[in-house]
Predict the 3D structure of the following.
Amino acid sequence: MSEYHPILPGLILGLPLLGAALNGLGAFAWRENKTVPTIVGPLTVLGAFALALWNLSAMRGAPPHEASLVSYWTWFSSGDLHVGVTLLFDQLSLLMTLIVTGVGGLIHVYSVGYMRDDRGYSRYFSYLNLFIFFMLVLVLAANYVLMFVGWEGVGLCSYLLIGFWYENREYSDAGKKAFIVNRIGDFGFLIAMFMLYTAFGTLDMLSIFERAPGTLVAGGVLVTAITLFLFLGCVGKSAQIPLHVWLPDAMAGPTPVSALIHAATMVTAGVYLIARSGVLFALAPFSQAVVASVGAGTALFAASIALQQNDIKKVLAYSTISQLGYMFLAVGVGAYTAGIFHLMTHAFFKALLFLGAGAVIYALHEAWDETGEHGDPNDMRNYGGLNRFMPITWRTMWVGTLAIAGVFPFAGFFSKDEIIWEAGVRGYAVLWGVGIAVALLTAGYMTRLMVMTFHGANRSFGEDGAGERSHLHEVPRVMWAPLVALAVLSAIGGWVQIPEALPLLPSVNLLHAWLEPVFQPALAVAGAGAAHGVVAVHGATVAPGESFSRTSPLGGGEALWAVLATVPAVAVVLLVFRSLSRRRYRRAAQAPEPRGLAAVLYHKWYVDELYDRIIVRPLLALWRGCWRIVDHRLIDGSVNGLAGLSRIAGWTGSQLQSGRLSTYILVFMIGALLILGSLAF
Amino acid sequence: MTGAPLGDLALVVSAALFAIGVAGVLLRRNVIIVFMCVELMLNAVNLSFVAFSRTHGIDGQIVVLFVISVAAAEATVGLALILAIFRHYESVDLDLFRRLRW
Amino acid sequence: MGKLYGTHWILTLLLAVPLTGAVACLVGPERRARWTALATTLVALALSLPLFWTFSTGTAEFQNAASFPWIERWGISYAVGLDGISLLMLLLTTVLMPLVVAGSFSQIGRRERAFYASLLILMMGMLGVFVSLDLFLFYMFWEVMLIPMYMIIGIWGGKRRIYSAVKFFLFTAAGSLLMLVAIVALVHLHQQQFGEASFAYADLLRLSIPPRLQLWLFGAFGLAFAIKVPLFPLHTWLPDAHVEAPTAGSVILAGILLKMGVYGFLRFAIPLFPSAAMNRGVVAVILLLGLIGIVYAAWVAAVQPDAKKLIAYTSVAHLGFVMLGVFALTPQSLEGAILQMVNHGISTGALFLLIGMIYERRHTRLIADFGGIARVMPFFAMALTVVALSSIGLPGTNGFVGEFLILVGTFQRYPVVAVLATTGVIFAAAYMLPMVQRIILNPLTDDENRELSDLNGRERAVLAPLLGLILLIGVYPQPFLDRISPSVNSLIEYVEARALPMEAEQEPEIPAVAFELTQREGNHTLEEERGEIGR
């Protein structure tokens, strides 16, 4: 076993960047040529994935070690602030790299089919490659500033890809909204960086984490402020309340983009940031409580909205917000591994679900193109009974649904169970309850999605659509192959971490053991804090070094609650399936408006309308007022007034010059007399 | 008869002439009369100079000669100007000549 | 080569080139004026670029410096020199000018000789301001800039050009007259304290000025510079001037002229009157005005219907950041401020060039008249996106590094101010992205827009260097910072050592810190200079 050194780290980043550059060039130089993007786009990402795998095997073969840093050049240095272009390779960043390039690679392959006929094919792959590059910068950065490059870079790519079909005004608006809302979060990230630099004199993560316990007062104002501002950044990027509004709109982008950016990778950056900064959060119990509460609140809130959406991508978008809430709940209570675990499994099953939805949309689009039918291809009321036409998509999406619903033994079961369990044993009784409730809601809305899409009678065509239905068929192999790959991962991805408490199963502890060196410092701080009573905020009793009470708030061990959690989930799936299968949906065009609570949920609790009324419109009015009144009336008015005043003074003076000789002489005489008089006296 | 009363008398006359001249310049609107009143003022001053030269020496009379010659030159130029203006306006009313306002 | 770049001759040559070019433009034929001007600016660029590498980093001394008596009776000298700050400003000028000239080819169709001669005279004035180390010389160049700019706006401008030109002229002249009074007062003080008049910067730095008087003189200098910057509420000349000026005028105004204000603060107002510049009240007022500029100008920009006016207001916001950085007076904030001046020159210059390019095609600047033109002008769309992102400070572009350094430095001293200023990054997105969207994105509905042709070779060539610099400074700004930082550090040391509270009567012994003007013999080579520095 030899020391681990990162293998070709520059190439992991360089390949996607090269791909972005080539495809970007192609968007201008060989716009009609689709061969080059088809080869360059997916291959660069898969190449990076291969390199990441190589690194993984090297790291596994090496003894546990200090994180490896790879320095390239000094980005900028001023005074005692030195910011280098430096990459950090440790277990966490490598895991994230694998997720990003792995899931990203599959989605690139899928895109080859999905975007086949788009005129912006090359541009699309350029953006997508660029996104992978920035995402890798984000996860591999060794200091906060470089991380911020990735952070805003992925935001940029998200902006470009949401508004990819820029000739649609709504889509461009959605992109703009995403960017601006994200900037509110970035504001928090920036302030947090300023504070960190003030406190530590550096922005290098490793030295901050090393010195944090000695420098910052645990539970103090400074560390609480730093972590809350960091969390503001996460709220923006990961679409948590109150900045969640951009993500549903972001579904305007091509569906593979939604899968990659708005489900699997970018939106989870907030979770990664908190997990990465675990030491800081461990020092700030109040912030942790805020993170966990916001996460749980968002999970519940978004899940409730997902129940009443008819746009298949909107359902998945709210589902994503809700699942991100789970991850924040996990990292908020200090269960970092659980958060990352769910991040990973979610990347599998949510990418799968989005790609499946994309396949359905694609199929409908093709069929409607051939038959001349019109309608919203995203609206589930226009689907129904697609299982007969798209068997692969149908089966793989059921795998994804069962995974997200937390049904044993799919991936979501293990990660979700761990989060709920960790929240419970750490004394967050309310959040624990919320977590269980959301799990049931998730099972509900996902089953509704599946029933409306794949079961019952087909509603895609008019009354006598029997002949036209023959145009519906399964998507090409380049699209269903990634679905199958992701379905396999969604099914077995959870097996890397099987709690020992579960009976009849071998205990697997791969993930915890793998991430242990990264999260050890944070857990140590939390343990030490508990010893000094800092964690008492939420009333948990924790002994330093070891563990929490291994019972839930209502008593009972992990195994009991795992069973208790999965049984209702299965029950909900069956119940919803039975009751909805019998219901007859009408096509979107003829469907009645929802009423009562359903209307509130359908309109997403009216949050967008509220923001428009109390923020957007008043601000615009204020800005117009600044321009029209302050700038024009006040400032320019006073300047022009001054000019007018001097004009009036000049005119008054000019009136003395009457042109009448006698007046001049009179004045002259008076003057002469005055001079003579003054001489005399 | 002493010199003093004569000198005083001359000064009184000079002052009266000067005042008449000033009044004429200020009040009359006919350019010719205004011009004559200017001459009157010059001659009033000449009279004082001559009167003072009795007590203060010859300097006053020398100045008078200067004034007369300058006045002659001035009369020439002035009358020429008046003639030119008259040709343009066909009037000698001073109040009409207001072209030199701003 | 080595001889030229070690001495003041290079600076003198740089001043002479545009003047010669201007004369050549005037006497040559009308059709050749543009080529003469382009050749002149390219020669100046070629001459100035080696300065970047021959400049020795690690020293705050003025390089390539020289001083010759000019009007000895009044202590006026021809004194020039470069430090890190003026080096970057000078290079910014020489880089932008060829692009400005080439960018004007299709826009200026009448009185070309006069136009290009004005541009070149303006260039000489700007270069002169940046290298002058004598206040008389400085003031002369300062005023020399005014007239060509007035003519460029007033003759080749848009509909309301006369109003805008007069407004520009009056605002600027009002400030600079006050500055003249203050300069004369300084010279008078020198006469009193040292027995002879002197306008030389180095001499005037030795003056001990009572803190109260410093306040007044700082006010007079500061007003002149604040109008140029422009600081809120003295900014209203800027939108008008920008909107009416031809593209060349706008680019120069935003790219270089605004920097004169900040440069004036850095070179003159702050070091000459350190007690005033460090006075709590003064700093508070300037920080407040800078802050208002950042936030307020962003707000106003967000609701502008006219693209050029929008960009003009963003300049106010950006310069607000710069002023914040200057008066926070920490190494990071100052270095960031100077870098941000360069950045702003590049990105806002590029924005004005881009808007000028579509203005030439459509003869409208109203944002609402465009929409969806990314389809017909893909290269334009790409360039506008990159430049807009640089303008709002996206990491990886030049704008981020400057803004980040300013804010991180300001935060060390005035956390609340920095936090409030950081909200500017949100508003920046809120004004820039809607503009980009409404110009290049959205449906392509207007028939006239359908007919637009993408940028031609000349236009691409004009934009390419700016796009390159945006990415270069974004990824590797360190060479620029290396050149700034000694000057910045010595400025901070100097000011902090000499600043006195207002009550103090006498200055203490002047500490022998850096910031001495070293004047070398004209024929020193660079190697010798480096040797001297080592000593």
Observations:
- Chain A has 24 helices and four strands.
- The radius of gyration of chain A is 31 Å.
- Chain A touches chain B at residues 654, 657-662, 665-666, 669 (CB under 8 Å).
- The first strand of chain A starts at residue 68 and ends at 78.
